[in-house]
Amino acid sequence: MLFNSLPFLVFISAFLSVFFLLRGVGKLGFLLLSSYLFYAWWDWRLLGLLWLTTFLDYSLGLAIDDTHSPTIRNRLVTGSVAVNLLILGIFKYYNFFIDSLTELMAVIGCPMGHHSMRIVLPIGISFYTFMSMSYTIDVYRRRIRAERSLLRFATFVAFFPHLVAGPILRPEHFLPQLHREPRFQWDQAITGIGWMLMGYLKKVVMADSMSPYIDRIFESPRAHGGAAILIGLLFYAFQIYGDFSGYSDIAYGVARIMGFDIGRNFRSPYFSASFSEFWQRWHISLSGWLRDYLYIPLGGNRRGTMRTYANLMTTMLLGGLWHGANWTFVIWGFLHGFYLVIQRLMSGLGGPSSNSPVILRKWIQPFQVSLVFVLVLVAWTFFRSPNLTTALIILQRVCNPGTFLAGGIPFLYFVVKGFICIGFLVSGEFAATRFDLERTLVKSPTFRVVMFSSALCIIAFLGSFEGGQFIYFQF
Fold first, then answer.
1. Which of 155, 388, 423, 456 has the most CB atoms lying inside 10 A of its own CB?
2. 179 included as an active-site residue
3. What's the predicted TM-score (pTM) here?
4. Which residues contact 365 (CB under 8 A, 6 or more apart)?
5. Catalytic residue among 162, 224, 283, 323
6. Could you give the 3-state DSSP secondary structure of residue 353?
7. Is residue 10 part of a domain?
Protein backbone atom coordinates (compact mmCIF):
# COMPACT_ATOMS: atom_id res chain seq x y z
CA MET A 1 0.00 0.00 0.00
CA LEU A 2 1.62 3.22 -1.18
CA PHE A 3 1.56 6.32 1.01
CA ASN A 4 0.66 8.37 -2.07
CA SER A 5 -2.43 6.33 -2.94
CA LEU A 6 -6.15 6.54 -2.21
CA PRO A 7 -6.22 3.13 -0.44
CA PHE A 8 -3.66 4.41 2.08
CA LEU A 9 -5.64 7.57 2.80
CA VAL A 10 -8.70 5.41 3.45
CA PHE A 11 -6.63 2.97 5.51
CA ILE A 12 -4.99 5.59 7.73
CA SER A 13 -8.29 7.40 8.32
CA ALA A 14 -10.04 4.18 9.36
CA PHE A 15 -7.04 3.05 11.42
CA LEU A 16 -6.75 6.26 13.45
CA SER A 17 -10.50 6.35 14.04
CA VAL A 18 -10.33 2.98 15.77
CA PHE A 19 -6.80 3.14 17.25
CA PHE A 20 -7.51 5.87 19.79
CA LEU A 21 -10.72 4.21 20.94
CA LEU A 22 -8.90 1.10 22.10
CA ARG A 23 -6.96 0.52 25.30
CA GLY A 24 -4.22 -1.80 26.54
CA VAL A 25 -3.47 -5.02 24.70
CA GLY A 26 -6.33 -4.41 22.30
CA LYS A 27 -4.69 -1.24 20.97
CA LEU A 28 -1.36 -3.00 20.46
CA GLY A 29 -3.01 -6.00 18.83
CA PHE A 30 -4.96 -3.74 16.49
CA LEU A 31 -1.74 -1.93 15.54
CA LEU A 32 -0.04 -5.25 14.74
CA LEU A 33 -2.95 -6.59 12.67
CA SER A 34 -3.18 -3.29 10.79
CA SER A 35 0.56 -3.43 10.09
CA TYR A 36 0.20 -6.93 8.66
CA LEU A 37 -2.73 -5.76 6.50
CA PHE A 38 -0.64 -2.83 5.27
CA TYR A 39 2.22 -5.19 4.32
CA ALA A 40 -0.03 -7.89 2.85
CA TRP A 41 -1.57 -5.33 0.50
CA TRP A 42 1.31 -6.04 -1.93
CA ASP A 43 1.38 -9.83 -1.54
CA TRP A 44 0.01 -11.73 1.45
CA ARG A 45 2.57 -14.50 0.88
CA LEU A 46 5.36 -12.13 1.98
CA LEU A 47 3.97 -12.27 5.50
CA GLY A 48 5.52 -15.72 5.93
CA LEU A 49 9.04 -14.33 5.63
CA LEU A 50 8.23 -11.48 8.00
CA TRP A 51 6.88 -13.96 10.56
CA LEU A 52 9.95 -16.18 10.18
CA THR A 53 12.27 -13.26 10.97
CA THR A 54 10.07 -12.20 13.87
CA PHE A 55 9.82 -15.61 15.56
CA LEU A 56 13.48 -16.42 14.93
CA ASP A 57 14.90 -13.31 16.60
CA TYR A 58 12.28 -13.22 19.34
CA SER A 59 13.20 -16.77 20.37
CA LEU A 60 16.95 -16.24 20.04
CA GLY A 61 16.73 -12.96 21.95
CA LEU A 62 15.11 -14.73 24.91
CA ALA A 63 17.67 -17.52 24.77
CA ILE A 64 20.60 -15.08 24.64
CA ASP A 65 19.21 -13.05 27.54
CA ASP A 66 18.60 -16.13 29.73
CA THR A 67 21.96 -17.75 29.05
CA HIS A 68 25.10 -16.88 31.02
CA SER A 69 27.50 -19.12 29.12
CA PRO A 70 29.64 -16.94 26.81
CA THR A 71 30.09 -19.83 24.39
CA ILE A 72 26.36 -20.47 24.03
CA ARG A 73 25.60 -16.76 23.77
CA ASN A 74 28.17 -16.42 20.98
CA ARG A 75 26.64 -19.33 19.11
CA LEU A 76 23.11 -17.96 19.47
CA VAL A 77 23.92 -14.45 18.26
CA THR A 78 26.04 -15.90 15.44
CA GLY A 79 23.09 -18.06 14.45
CA SER A 80 20.78 -15.03 14.40
CA VAL A 81 23.15 -13.00 12.24
CA ALA A 82 23.89 -15.96 9.94
CA VAL A 83 20.25 -16.88 9.34
CA ASN A 84 19.19 -13.27 8.79
CA LEU A 85 21.99 -12.66 6.33
CA LEU A 86 21.30 -15.98 4.61
CA ILE A 87 17.65 -15.05 4.08
CA LEU A 88 18.65 -11.61 2.83
CA GLY A 89 21.35 -13.09 0.63
CA ILE A 90 19.08 -15.64 -1.03
CA PHE A 91 16.27 -13.23 -1.83
CA LYS A 92 18.37 -10.19 -2.70
CA TYR A 93 21.80 -11.32 -3.86
CA TYR A 94 21.65 -14.92 -5.10
CA ASN A 95 21.20 -14.08 -8.79
CA PHE A 96 23.69 -11.20 -8.59
CA PHE A 97 26.50 -13.38 -7.26
CA ILE A 98 25.66 -16.33 -9.52
CA ASP A 99 25.52 -14.14 -12.63
CA SER A 100 28.77 -12.38 -11.66
CA LEU A 101 30.48 -15.72 -11.08
CA THR A 102 29.19 -17.06 -14.40
CA GLU A 103 30.58 -14.03 -16.26
CA LEU A 104 33.93 -14.34 -14.47
CA MET A 105 34.25 -18.03 -15.26
CA ALA A 106 33.41 -17.36 -18.90
CA VAL A 107 36.17 -14.74 -19.09
CA ILE A 108 38.81 -17.16 -17.76
CA GLY A 109 37.62 -19.92 -20.09
CA CYS A 110 35.60 -22.09 -17.68
CA PRO A 111 31.97 -21.61 -18.73
CA MET A 112 29.24 -22.52 -16.24
CA GLY A 113 25.64 -23.47 -16.78
CA HIS A 114 22.83 -21.02 -16.11
CA HIS A 115 21.91 -21.18 -12.42
CA SER A 116 19.79 -18.05 -11.90
CA MET A 117 16.39 -18.40 -10.24
CA ARG A 118 13.21 -16.38 -10.55
CA ILE A 119 13.23 -14.79 -7.09
CA VAL A 120 10.85 -11.98 -6.13
CA LEU A 121 12.50 -9.47 -3.79
CA PRO A 122 10.22 -9.11 -0.74
CA ILE A 123 9.49 -5.44 -0.21
CA GLY A 124 11.21 -3.90 2.80
CA ILE A 125 13.32 -7.00 3.55
CA SER A 126 16.54 -4.99 3.94
CA PHE A 127 14.96 -2.69 6.50
CA TYR A 128 13.19 -5.15 8.77
CA THR A 129 16.04 -7.70 8.56
CA PHE A 130 18.60 -5.16 9.75
CA MET A 131 16.25 -3.97 12.47
CA SER A 132 15.44 -7.43 13.80
CA MET A 133 19.07 -8.51 13.62
CA SER A 134 20.20 -5.44 15.58
CA TYR A 135 17.81 -6.49 18.36
CA THR A 136 19.57 -9.81 19.01
CA ILE A 137 22.97 -8.11 18.78
CA ASP A 138 21.93 -5.52 21.36
CA VAL A 139 20.59 -8.23 23.66
CA TYR A 140 23.90 -10.07 23.28
CA ARG A 141 25.82 -6.87 24.12
CA ARG A 142 23.62 -6.42 27.22
CA ARG A 143 22.53 -3.03 25.94
CA ILE A 144 18.89 -4.05 26.32
CA ARG A 145 16.97 -6.85 27.95
CA ALA A 146 15.07 -9.29 25.76
CA GLU A 147 11.47 -8.35 25.07
CA ARG A 148 9.27 -10.95 26.82
CA SER A 149 6.07 -10.06 24.97
CA LEU A 150 5.82 -11.59 21.50
CA LEU A 151 3.07 -9.09 20.73
CA ARG A 152 5.33 -6.12 21.44
CA PHE A 153 8.29 -7.57 19.58
CA ALA A 154 6.18 -8.43 16.53
CA THR A 155 4.79 -4.89 16.55
CA PHE A 156 8.32 -3.50 16.77
CA VAL A 157 9.32 -5.42 13.63
CA ALA A 158 6.11 -4.84 11.65
CA PHE A 159 5.22 -1.24 12.68
CA PHE A 160 3.71 -0.12 9.39
CA PRO A 161 4.95 3.49 9.03
CA HIS A 162 8.57 2.33 8.76
CA LEU A 163 8.10 -1.23 7.51
CA VAL A 164 8.80 -1.02 3.80
CA ALA A 165 11.30 1.85 3.48
CA GLY A 166 12.57 2.71 6.92
CA PRO A 167 13.80 4.35 8.95
CA ILE A 168 15.60 1.42 10.58
CA LEU A 169 14.25 1.57 14.13
CA ARG A 170 16.62 0.89 17.00
CA PRO A 171 15.25 -1.45 19.67
CA GLU A 172 16.47 0.62 22.64
CA HIS A 173 14.59 3.62 21.22
CA PHE A 174 11.31 2.11 20.04
CA LEU A 175 10.58 -0.94 22.20
CA PRO A 176 10.18 1.15 25.40
CA GLN A 177 7.56 3.22 23.58
CA LEU A 178 5.49 0.08 23.09
CA HIS A 179 5.37 -0.35 26.86
CA ARG A 180 3.52 2.95 27.14
CA GLU A 181 -0.02 3.43 25.90
CA PRO A 182 -0.11 6.28 23.39
CA ARG A 183 -2.95 8.76 23.80
CA PHE A 184 -4.24 11.33 21.35
CA GLN A 185 -2.59 14.71 21.82
CA TRP A 186 -3.57 17.71 19.76
CA ASP A 187 -0.03 19.13 19.52
CA GLN A 188 1.34 15.82 18.23
CA ALA A 189 -1.46 15.55 15.69
CA ILE A 190 -0.74 19.04 14.35
CA THR A 191 2.99 18.43 13.95
CA GLY A 192 2.31 14.97 12.51
CA ILE A 193 -0.01 16.39 9.85
CA GLY A 194 2.58 19.06 9.10
CA TRP A 195 5.28 16.44 8.48
CA MET A 196 2.93 14.37 6.35
CA LEU A 197 2.12 17.37 4.15
CA MET A 198 5.82 18.13 3.84
CA GLY A 199 6.41 14.55 2.74
CA TYR A 200 3.66 14.69 0.13
CA LEU A 201 5.05 17.98 -1.22
CA LYS A 202 8.47 16.37 -1.65
CA LYS A 203 7.08 13.19 -3.20
CA VAL A 204 4.15 14.06 -5.48
CA VAL A 205 5.09 17.64 -6.35
CA MET A 206 8.88 17.46 -6.66
CA ALA A 207 10.08 13.86 -7.04
CA ASP A 208 7.29 12.54 -9.26
CA SER A 209 7.25 15.69 -11.41
CA MET A 210 10.94 15.23 -12.22
CA SER A 211 10.64 11.52 -12.92
CA PRO A 212 9.65 11.67 -16.66
CA TYR A 213 12.62 13.88 -17.52
CA ILE A 214 15.10 11.81 -15.52
CA ASP A 215 13.84 8.52 -16.96
CA ARG A 216 14.22 9.81 -20.50
CA ILE A 217 17.80 10.97 -19.89
CA PHE A 218 18.98 7.72 -18.30
CA GLU A 219 17.20 5.50 -20.83
CA SER A 220 19.13 6.95 -23.78
CA PRO A 221 21.98 9.25 -22.74
CA ARG A 222 23.59 9.16 -26.20
CA ALA A 223 20.53 10.93 -27.60
CA HIS A 224 20.99 14.01 -25.41
CA GLY A 225 23.52 16.77 -25.08
CA GLY A 226 25.65 17.50 -22.06
CA ALA A 227 23.41 20.31 -20.80
CA ALA A 228 20.29 18.11 -20.86
CA ILE A 229 22.14 15.30 -19.09
CA LEU A 230 23.55 17.65 -16.44
CA ILE A 231 20.04 18.88 -15.70
CA GLY A 232 18.94 15.25 -15.44
CA LEU A 233 21.70 14.51 -12.91
CA LEU A 234 20.80 17.58 -10.87
CA PHE A 235 17.14 16.61 -10.94
CA TYR A 236 17.93 13.06 -9.86
CA ALA A 237 19.80 14.32 -6.80
CA PHE A 238 16.66 16.16 -5.72
CA GLN A 239 14.29 13.44 -6.93
CA ILE A 240 15.84 10.75 -4.75
CA TYR A 241 16.04 13.16 -1.84
CA GLY A 242 12.42 14.26 -2.28
CA ASP A 243 11.27 10.69 -2.79
CA PHE A 244 13.05 9.08 0.17
CA SER A 245 12.92 11.96 2.62
CA GLY A 246 9.30 12.47 1.57
CA TYR A 247 8.52 8.88 2.55
CA SER A 248 10.42 9.34 5.81
CA ASP A 249 8.54 12.57 6.58
CA ILE A 250 5.18 10.89 5.98
CA ALA A 251 6.21 7.94 8.15
CA TYR A 252 7.46 10.28 10.86
CA GLY A 253 4.23 12.28 10.71
CA VAL A 254 1.97 9.22 10.91
CA ALA A 255 3.93 7.93 13.89
CA ARG A 256 3.72 11.33 15.60
CA ILE A 257 -0.06 11.40 15.20
CA MET A 258 -0.20 7.94 16.79
CA GLY A 259 1.98 9.11 19.69
CA PHE A 260 5.27 7.48 18.68
CA ASP A 261 8.67 8.93 17.83
CA ILE A 262 10.59 7.02 15.15
CA GLY A 263 13.25 9.69 14.65
CA ARG A 264 14.11 11.94 11.73
CA ASN A 265 15.88 10.21 8.84
CA PHE A 266 17.06 13.31 6.96
CA ARG A 267 18.31 16.73 8.02
CA SER A 268 19.00 18.86 4.92
CA PRO A 269 21.90 16.71 3.64
CA TYR A 270 22.73 18.93 0.67
CA PHE A 271 23.81 21.68 3.05
CA SER A 272 26.67 19.45 4.24
CA ALA A 273 30.18 20.90 4.21
CA SER A 274 31.91 17.50 4.46
CA PHE A 275 31.16 13.90 3.59
CA SER A 276 31.05 12.79 7.20
CA GLU A 277 28.47 15.52 7.78
CA PHE A 278 26.56 14.33 4.72
CA TRP A 279 26.24 10.87 6.26
CA GLN A 280 25.10 12.42 9.53
CA ARG A 281 22.25 14.05 7.59
CA TRP A 282 21.39 11.50 4.85
CA HIS A 283 19.55 8.26 5.69
CA ILE A 284 20.52 8.78 9.30
CA SER A 285 19.16 5.44 10.51
CA LEU A 286 21.23 3.43 7.99
CA SER A 287 24.44 5.39 8.52
CA GLY A 288 24.02 4.99 12.29
CA TRP A 289 23.38 1.26 11.87
CA LEU A 290 26.48 0.80 9.69
CA ARG A 291 28.56 2.75 12.19
CA ASP A 292 27.42 0.85 15.28
CA TYR A 293 27.13 -2.67 13.85
CA LEU A 294 29.86 -2.70 11.20
CA TYR A 295 32.39 0.14 11.33
CA ILE A 296 32.99 0.13 15.09
CA PRO A 297 33.10 -3.70 15.42
CA LEU A 298 35.68 -3.71 12.60
CA GLY A 299 37.83 -1.47 14.76
CA GLY A 300 36.63 1.97 13.73
CA ASN A 301 39.47 4.47 14.00
CA ARG A 302 41.13 2.77 16.97
CA ARG A 303 43.68 0.62 15.14
CA GLY A 304 45.79 3.03 13.18
CA THR A 305 45.41 5.15 10.08
CA MET A 306 45.50 2.46 7.41
CA ARG A 307 43.09 0.22 9.31
CA THR A 308 40.72 3.19 9.65
CA TYR A 309 40.79 3.74 5.90
CA ALA A 310 40.16 0.04 5.28
CA ASN A 311 37.23 0.06 7.73
CA LEU A 312 35.70 3.11 6.04
CA MET A 313 35.98 1.52 2.60
CA THR A 314 34.57 -1.81 3.80
CA THR A 315 31.65 -0.11 5.52
CA MET A 316 30.71 2.01 2.52
CA LEU A 317 31.18 -0.84 0.02
CA LEU A 318 28.79 -3.01 2.04
CA GLY A 319 26.50 -0.03 2.47
CA GLY A 320 26.40 0.31 -1.30
CA LEU A 321 25.71 -3.39 -1.76
CA TRP A 322 22.90 -3.13 0.83
CA HIS A 323 21.08 -0.84 -1.58
CA GLY A 324 20.90 -3.38 -4.36
CA ALA A 325 22.40 -6.30 -6.22
CA ASN A 326 24.20 -4.38 -8.93
CA TRP A 327 27.79 -3.30 -9.46
CA THR A 328 26.58 0.29 -9.85
CA PHE A 329 25.68 0.32 -6.15
CA VAL A 330 29.08 -1.11 -5.27
CA ILE A 331 30.78 1.70 -7.21
CA TRP A 332 28.52 4.23 -5.46
CA GLY A 333 29.60 2.84 -2.09
CA PHE A 334 33.24 2.80 -3.17
CA LEU A 335 33.08 6.47 -4.16
CA HIS A 336 31.63 7.50 -0.81
CA GLY A 337 34.24 5.43 0.99
CA PHE A 338 36.94 7.09 -1.13
CA TYR A 339 35.50 10.53 -0.34
CA LEU A 340 35.62 9.81 3.39
CA VAL A 341 39.21 8.58 3.17
CA ILE A 342 40.29 11.68 1.23
CA GLN A 343 38.50 13.85 3.76
CA ARG A 344 40.58 12.31 6.54
CA LEU A 345 43.74 12.89 4.52
CA MET A 346 42.75 16.52 3.95
CA SER A 347 41.67 17.58 7.39
CA GLY A 348 40.71 21.02 6.14
CA LEU A 349 37.79 19.54 4.19
CA GLY A 350 35.92 18.97 7.44
CA GLY A 351 35.37 22.71 7.86
CA PRO A 352 37.34 25.71 9.06
CA SER A 353 38.42 25.78 12.67
CA SER A 354 36.29 27.64 15.18
CA ASN A 355 39.36 29.79 15.80
CA SER A 356 39.53 30.84 12.14
CA PRO A 357 38.50 34.40 11.24
CA VAL A 358 34.76 34.82 10.66
CA ILE A 359 35.29 36.10 7.12
CA LEU A 360 37.33 33.00 6.29
CA ARG A 361 34.65 30.64 7.55
CA LYS A 362 32.00 32.66 5.72
CA TRP A 363 33.71 32.17 2.34
CA ILE A 364 35.08 28.66 2.78
CA GLN A 365 31.85 26.93 3.82
CA PRO A 366 29.86 27.69 0.61
CA PHE A 367 32.78 26.33 -1.42
CA GLN A 368 32.86 23.17 0.69
CA VAL A 369 29.09 22.67 0.40
CA SER A 370 29.32 23.07 -3.39
CA LEU A 371 32.25 20.66 -3.66
CA VAL A 372 30.51 18.01 -1.57
CA PHE A 373 27.33 18.36 -3.62
CA VAL A 374 29.16 18.01 -6.96
CA LEU A 375 31.01 14.88 -5.83
CA VAL A 376 27.80 13.41 -4.39
CA LEU A 377 26.23 14.09 -7.80
CA VAL A 378 28.98 12.06 -9.48
CA ALA A 379 28.20 9.16 -7.15
CA TRP A 380 24.45 9.47 -7.84
CA THR A 381 25.24 8.89 -11.53
CA PHE A 382 26.21 5.30 -10.76
CA PHE A 383 23.39 4.85 -8.24
CA ARG A 384 20.71 5.73 -10.83
CA SER A 385 22.25 4.14 -13.92
CA PRO A 386 21.02 0.64 -14.85
CA ASN A 387 24.60 -0.45 -15.59
CA LEU A 388 28.18 0.79 -15.55
CA THR A 389 28.20 1.49 -19.30
CA THR A 390 25.32 3.96 -19.01
CA ALA A 391 26.97 5.72 -16.07
CA LEU A 392 30.26 6.12 -17.94
CA ILE A 393 28.49 7.46 -21.05
CA ILE A 394 26.68 10.04 -18.92
CA LEU A 395 29.84 11.21 -17.18
CA GLN A 396 31.75 11.32 -20.47
CA ARG A 397 29.10 13.52 -22.10
CA VAL A 398 28.84 15.84 -19.13
CA CYS A 399 32.63 16.27 -18.98
CA ASN A 400 32.94 16.90 -22.73
CA PRO A 401 32.23 20.58 -23.51
CA GLY A 402 31.48 19.72 -27.11
CA THR A 403 28.40 17.72 -26.18
CA PHE A 404 26.75 20.73 -24.56
CA LEU A 405 26.02 22.09 -28.03
CA ALA A 406 24.50 18.81 -29.22
CA GLY A 407 20.74 18.56 -29.05
CA GLY A 408 18.21 20.63 -27.14
CA ILE A 409 16.69 20.22 -23.72
CA PRO A 410 13.57 18.00 -23.82
CA PHE A 411 10.46 18.38 -21.68
CA LEU A 412 10.89 22.11 -21.06
CA TYR A 413 7.74 22.19 -18.91
CA PHE A 414 9.23 19.60 -16.56
CA VAL A 415 12.55 21.45 -16.54
CA VAL A 416 10.98 24.74 -15.51
CA LYS A 417 8.74 23.03 -12.96
CA GLY A 418 11.71 21.08 -11.61
CA PHE A 419 13.84 24.17 -11.02
CA ILE A 420 10.92 25.93 -9.34
CA CYS A 421 10.47 22.94 -7.02
CA ILE A 422 14.18 22.87 -6.21
CA GLY A 423 14.08 26.59 -5.43
CA PHE A 424 11.14 26.17 -3.05
CA LEU A 425 12.73 23.15 -1.36
CA VAL A 426 16.12 24.80 -0.79
CA SER A 427 14.46 28.01 0.44
CA GLY A 428 12.15 26.09 2.75
CA GLU A 429 14.92 24.00 4.25
CA PHE A 430 17.12 27.05 4.72
CA ALA A 431 14.24 28.83 6.46
CA ALA A 432 13.67 25.77 8.67
CA THR A 433 17.20 26.19 10.03
CA ARG A 434 16.29 29.69 11.18
CA PHE A 435 13.11 29.00 13.18
CA ASP A 436 11.29 26.15 14.90
CA LEU A 437 8.62 25.04 12.43
CA GLU A 438 6.93 22.59 14.81
CA ARG A 439 6.59 25.11 17.63
CA THR A 440 5.24 27.74 15.25
CA LEU A 441 2.65 25.33 13.85
CA VAL A 442 1.40 24.51 17.35
CA LYS A 443 1.47 28.03 18.79
CA SER A 444 0.12 30.02 15.85
CA PRO A 445 -3.29 29.04 14.43
CA THR A 446 -2.95 31.62 11.66
CA PHE A 447 0.41 30.24 10.53
CA ARG A 448 -1.01 26.72 10.71
CA VAL A 449 -4.02 27.54 8.52
CA VAL A 450 -1.89 29.38 5.96
CA MET A 451 0.74 26.62 5.77
CA PHE A 452 -1.69 23.71 5.62
CA SER A 453 -3.93 25.44 3.06
CA SER A 454 -0.97 26.42 0.89
CA ALA A 455 0.48 22.90 1.02
CA LEU A 456 -2.84 21.31 0.05
CA CYS A 457 -3.31 23.74 -2.85
CA ILE A 458 0.22 23.14 -4.17
CA ILE A 459 -0.25 19.37 -3.90
CA ALA A 460 -3.64 19.54 -5.65
CA PHE A 461 -2.55 21.78 -8.55
CA LEU A 462 1.08 20.77 -9.08
CA GLY A 463 1.25 17.20 -7.80
CA SER A 464 1.58 14.07 -9.91
CA PHE A 465 -1.00 11.49 -8.84
CA GLU A 466 -0.07 8.47 -10.93
CA GLY A 467 0.80 6.49 -7.82
CA GLY A 468 4.52 6.16 -8.58
CA GLN A 469 6.35 3.84 -6.19
CA PHE A 470 8.90 5.18 -3.78
CA ILE A 471 12.45 4.59 -5.01
CA TYR A 472 13.63 2.94 -1.80
CA PHE A 473 10.94 0.24 -2.00
CA GLN A 474 13.35 -1.70 -4.25
CA PHE A 475 15.98 -1.85 -1.52
1. 155
2. no
3. 0.90
4. 273, 351, 352
5. 323
6. coil
7. no
